[in-house]
């Protein structure tokens, strides 16, 4: 799967773009602004406040500038979990941990055993939800968590101060802290630690699922998607309106969600996650073992 | 309220007592400093080991991502409220009995807010990146505003400590010169900026202190509100409660006054300030604790009732764990030991003694720390997807660092009062002067009315002398009643 | 609506009749047989952001199976066909409407299955240059409106002004006292 000619594409990190008016995305930009004043050392509090304010307006002007030009086919990544096919084998978790050299506690994609209202047990994997309104990003005091133009919420571990407010804010418990020195990572030539490729993890900073942001620009599937033997996980693009699973099954995303009554987990927190679930308890598996 | 007369009589024994710790702190001073400094140093060593090993060595894990250190930040910043209240509110309401306590209270406020703020560093995984808060802040983060609120309040506390100190430094300067302590005398002289106690200087200073006293109250309220919003701006059950901001503020006032009681008792004992601080001061402070303790208990009920009644899954799970589950023992210990018992001790006349008041105050501070631990760890332990609770244990590292913070309070105060007068000399002299003058005016009008030295007090058969009246009134005034009596003799 | 029509500017087009064998593209279409199915993409005047895909078979064909329509994507490495609709033949023509969700040249494919052989019999290709588009899925709850985002930056600016005022008050008070002491000393 790995491309040796890989050259890392920077997903315009360190600056999330104002949500475009051509899309239906909620305009929640202003409060999430970070002022990047890198390099400024010892300035008085007032000066900093003033520059931050200027920065705020500068960004707003720029955002208005981009609004009229329209999107030029930016990908808007999304995931769908077809729970009708999930038997809770945790292959996704293992594929992820192996790819990112994680410890067993760091379940960036975690399979929960859930109880339905009808008393059935079912399995539900939870990656990072890549929320449209990510509370983790809003509360990060130094803007170490940011959102790319393509809707990926990533962590700059070189900037994280380790305050863990994001862990408090995430309603999905999707964030994991490196409480001790992380295990040595399997080295891949030509790949440097970055928000998109956070390997190895950095001690005393927060890490989380990145949807294999290093792979997506190359048309490669994230490790969990590729590693799911049941084809439960679809990675898709809301712009192209297409999604694919490990079995190579391509669907029209909007129809797939609509026709199968897809829902988003814990919608009540208002984070607008980019992960949809198709309700089920593994009934589409041949052995039907997951139903009780 | 403030006197405008420049010829305020100096009170010699007060000036001597206030500067005594600077000149002769006592034999056991160095012993105490060494022991406390060792505890602090041990805590710093533990912290360095923690930085080396990672935050996991302090007992933290993914199900207890916030725990003891943030609880310490809340606790220590909280107890610094005592200074703001005793000093600012009592000053603004004209409660003259505050005067012997203000210097200790204000110094406690400065010391505890600095210790509280420094607990941010062990709380952070990457303390060396702390300055990012200044050069690349995210203005929508509650943590950024915590940083702003705490630093503003800390600076205001320092100003509020320094301004009333300014004339006292001038007083201390003379004594330092007399005893040949020239180096400290130079600093005193520089820091007191040519104070000579004339009317215009006093007017300017008292006006400025009044302004800061007004300003520091909303600042203090803002600090704990913003601190509470670090929790309640997340969607976590029990943290996400609208009551938390006032809840934190009341807790801070409650524990802050309790700490002032403890610190005042400590320094009264070691520096023999019994002539200036007596049981009435403790009783009054104890009585202030009563409404705050009762309010905190009331807010606790108000915090738990709606969530328990409605039964939303996450909230009910956390509340059940606190009230009847895994944290119940500690929670009820707090309710009885931290609210009901101290309030009863302070409220019942027959338990209102210095000893019992001190026990009550110690109970308040200890159990409010416990309460903060429950408030932080409980919701952090709760997994919102699984509905299961994780666990959290203290380690020797987290305990050592916390104890270092506790030991740092008396240590820093001992060091502060080694260089700074422990009583607010000028404030007390002004109050004595002012009240003596009021008394003189009253006596004069009585004398004018009766044309005699004998005053009839309703019952014609009971005749008492002016001196007895002065004596009786003065004992109802300041603890510096001795000086009043001396002055009354001269009338 | 006017803005919408602004986005959707039709630069028509090449209604391609080119019949391409897709055998090399996807294993699912291994048994493709070329045949005279034609696919035509048009933009109706009334709804500017919707395209109409019409596939027609010569009248002499006996085939009566439904026509499957696809749009091609290279998103996941290689070419993949995203199913966008199925329609039955009516007078030799089957048509669907499609709302493009992304910009750029899109190529469409129509297929029909021969029920006798079970093989994907006929394919046709057409491409269309989409100037602007709308994502098909909206994430936002339409009723959800955050009062804080209503005030936006103004809220933060107001807070910063308050903080600045407090610091200015503290510093000027300190400065006034320090300077005043020296000034007022005789």
Q: From the 3D coordinates, which CATH architecture of chain B would you assign?
A: Up-down Bundle
Identify the CATH homologous superfamily of the largest domain in chain C. Answer: Immunoglobulins
Characterize the overall form of chain B.
globular
Structural class of chain C: alpha+beta
- Chain pair forming the biggest interface: A-B, 51 and 45 residues
CATH homologous superfamily caption of chain B: Formate dehydrogenase/DMSO reductase domain
Fraction of residues in β-strands of chain B: under 5%
How many beta-strand elements of chain B? Answer: 2
CATH class of the largest domain in chain C: Mainly Beta
Keywords:
heterotrimer, B: 491 residues, mainly alpha, Formate dehydrogenase/DMSO reductase fold, 19 helices, 1% strand, disordered N terminus, C: 186 residues, alpha+beta, Immunoglobulin-like, 2 domains, 3-stranded antiparallel sheet, 3 helices
Describe this structure in words.
The complex is a heterotrimer of chains A (292), B (491) and C (186). With 292 residues, chain A is of the alpha+beta class. Chain A has two domains: 60 residues, no CATH class; 217 residues, Alpha-Beta Plaits. In chain A, 19% of the residues lie in helices and 15% in strands. In chain A, strands 10-9-8-1-11 form a five-stranded mixed beta sheet. In chain A, strands 2-3 form a two-stranded antiparallel ribbon. Chain A has a two-stranded antiparallel ribbon with strand order 4-5. The relative contact order of chain A is 0.20. The N terminus and C terminus of chain A are likely disordered. With 491 residues, chain B is mainly α. Chain B has one domain: Formate dehydrogenase/DMSO reductase fold (Up-down Bundle), CATH 1.20.1630.10. In chain B, strands 1-2 form a two-stranded antiparallel ribbon. In chain B, β1 and β2 form a beta hairpin. In chain B, α2 runs antiparallel to α16, α4 packs across α10 and α11 runs antiparallel to α15. Chain C contains three helices and seven strands, in the order αβββββββαα. Chain C folds into two domains: 129 residues, Immunoglobulins (Immunoglobulin-like), CATH 2.60.40.10; 35 residues. By secondary structure, chain C is an alpha+beta fold. Chain C starts with a helix and ends with a helix. Chains in contact: A-B, A-C, B-C. Chains A and B meet through α1, α3 and α4 of A and α7 and α8 of B.
């Amino acid at each position: 799967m790995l491309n040796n000619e890989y050259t890392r594409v920077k997903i315009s990190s360190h600056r999330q773009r104002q949500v475009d008016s051509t899309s239906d995305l909620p305009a929640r930009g202003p409060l999430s602004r970070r002022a990047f004043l890198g390099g400024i050392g010892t300035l008085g509090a007032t000066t900093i406040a003033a520059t931050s304010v200027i920065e705020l307006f500068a960004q707003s002007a720029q955002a208005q500038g981009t609004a009229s030009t329209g999107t030029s086919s930016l990908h808007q990544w999304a995931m769908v979990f077809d729970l009708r096919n999930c038997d809770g084998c945790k292959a996704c978790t293992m594929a992820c941990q192996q790819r990112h050299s994680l410890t067993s506690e760091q379940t960036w994609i975690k399979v929960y055993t859930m109880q339905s209202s009808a008393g059935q047990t079912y399995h539900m994997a939870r990656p990072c939800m890549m929320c449209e309104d990510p509370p983790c990003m809003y509360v990060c005091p130094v803007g170490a968590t940011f959102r790319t133009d393509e809707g990926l919420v990533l962590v700059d571990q070189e900037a994280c101060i380790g305050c863990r407010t994001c862990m408090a804010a995430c309603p999905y418990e999707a964030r994991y802290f490196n409480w001790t020195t992380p295990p040595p990572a399997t080295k891949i030539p030509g790949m440097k630690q970055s928000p998109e490729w956070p390997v190895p993890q950095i001690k005393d900073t927060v890490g989380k699922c990145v949807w294999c942001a290093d792979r997506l620009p190359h048309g490669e599937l994230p490790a969990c998607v590729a590693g799911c033997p049941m084809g439960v996980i679809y990675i898709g693009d809301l712009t192209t309106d297409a999604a694919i699973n490990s079995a190579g099954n391509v669907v029209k995303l909007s129809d797939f969600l609509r026709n199968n009554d897809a829902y988003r987990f814990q919608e009540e927190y208002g984070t607008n996650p980019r992960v949809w679930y198709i309700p089920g308890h593994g009934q589409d598996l041949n052995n039907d073992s997951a139903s009780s | 309220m403030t006197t405008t007369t420049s010829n305020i009589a100096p009170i010699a024994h007060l000036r001597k007592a206030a500067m005594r710790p600077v000149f002769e702190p006592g034999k056991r001073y160095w012993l105490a400093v060494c022991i406390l400094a060792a505890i602090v140093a041990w805590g710093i060593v533990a912290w360095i080991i923690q930085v080396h090993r990672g935050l996991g060595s302090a007992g933290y894990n993914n199900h207890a991502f916030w725990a003891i250190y943030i609880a310490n930040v809340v606790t220590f910043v909280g107890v610094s409220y005592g200074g703001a209240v005793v000093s600012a509110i009592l000053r603004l309401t004209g409660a003259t009995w505050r005067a012997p306590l203000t210097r200790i209270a204000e110094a406690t406020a400065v010391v505890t807010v600095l210790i509280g703020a420094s607990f941010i560093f062990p709380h952070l995984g990457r303390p060396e990146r702390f300055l990012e808060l200044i050069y690349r802040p995210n203005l929508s983060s509650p943590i950024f505003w915590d940083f702003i609120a705490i630093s503003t309040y800390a600076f205001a506390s320092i100003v509020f400590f320094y301004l009333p100190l300014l004339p006292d430094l001038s007083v201390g300067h003379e004594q330092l010169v007399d005893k040949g302590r020239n180096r400290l005398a130079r600093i005193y002289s520089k820091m007191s900026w040519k104070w000579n106690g004339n009317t215009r200087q006093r007017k300017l200073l008292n006006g400025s202190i009044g302004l800061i006293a007004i300003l520091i109250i909303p600042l203090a309220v803002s600090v704990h509100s913003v601190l509470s919003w670090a929790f309640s701006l997340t969607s976590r059950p029990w943290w996400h409660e609208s009551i938390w901001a006032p809840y934190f503020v009341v807790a801070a006032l409650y524990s802050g006054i309790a700490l002032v009681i403890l610190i005042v008792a400590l320094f009264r004992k070691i520096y023999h300030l019994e002539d200036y601080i007596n049981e009435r001061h403790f009783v009054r402070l104890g009585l202030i604790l009563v409404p705050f303790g009762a309010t905190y208990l009331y807010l606790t009920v108000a915090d738990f009732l709606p969530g328990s009644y409605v039964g939303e899954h996450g909230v009910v799970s956390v509340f059940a764990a606190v009230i009847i589950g895994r944290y119940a023992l500690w929670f009820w210990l707090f309710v009885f030991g931290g609210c009901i018992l101290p309030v009863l001790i302070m409220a019942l006349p027959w338990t209102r003694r210095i000893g019992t008041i001190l026990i009550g105050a110690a109970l308040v501070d200890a159990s409010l720390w416990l309460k903060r631990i429950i408030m932080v760890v409980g919701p952090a332990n709760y997994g919102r997807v699984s509905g299961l609770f994780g666990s959290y244990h203290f380690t020797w590292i987290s305990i050592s660092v916390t104890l270092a913070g506790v030991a740092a309070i008396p240590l820093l105060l001992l060091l502060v009062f080694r260089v700074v007068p422990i009583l607010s000399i000028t404030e007390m002299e002004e109050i004595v002067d002012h009240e003596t003058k009021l008394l003189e005016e009253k006596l004069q009008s009585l004398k004018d009315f009766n044309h005699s030295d004998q005053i009839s007090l309703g019952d014609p058969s009971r005749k008492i002398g002016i001196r007895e009246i002065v004596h009786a009134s003065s004992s109802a005034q300041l603890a510096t009643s001795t000086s009043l009596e001396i002055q009354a003799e001269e009338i | 609506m006017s803005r919408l029509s602004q986005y959707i500017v039709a630069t028509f087009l090449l209604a391609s009749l080119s019949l391409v064998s897709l055998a090399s593209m996807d294993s699912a279409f291994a048994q493709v047989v070329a045949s005279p199915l034609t696919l035509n993409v048009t933009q109706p005047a009334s709804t500017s952001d919707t395209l109409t895909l019409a596939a027609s078979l010569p009248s002499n064909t006996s085939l009566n199976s439904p026509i499957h329509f696809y749009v091609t994507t290279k998103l996941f490495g290689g070419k993949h066909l995203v199913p966008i609709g199925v329609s039955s033949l009516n007078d030799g023509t089957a048509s669907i409407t499609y709302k493009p969700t992304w910009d750029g040249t899109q190529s469409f494919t129509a297929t029909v299955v021969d029920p006798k052989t079970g093989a994907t019999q006929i394919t046709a290709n057409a491409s269309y240059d989409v100037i602007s588009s709308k994502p098909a899925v909206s994430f936002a709850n339409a009723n959800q409106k955050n009062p804080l985002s209503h005030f936006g930056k103004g809220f933060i600016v107001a807070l910063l002004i308050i903080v600045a005022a407090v610091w200015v008050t503290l510093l000027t008070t300190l400065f006034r006292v320090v300077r005043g002491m020296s000034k007022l000393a005789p």
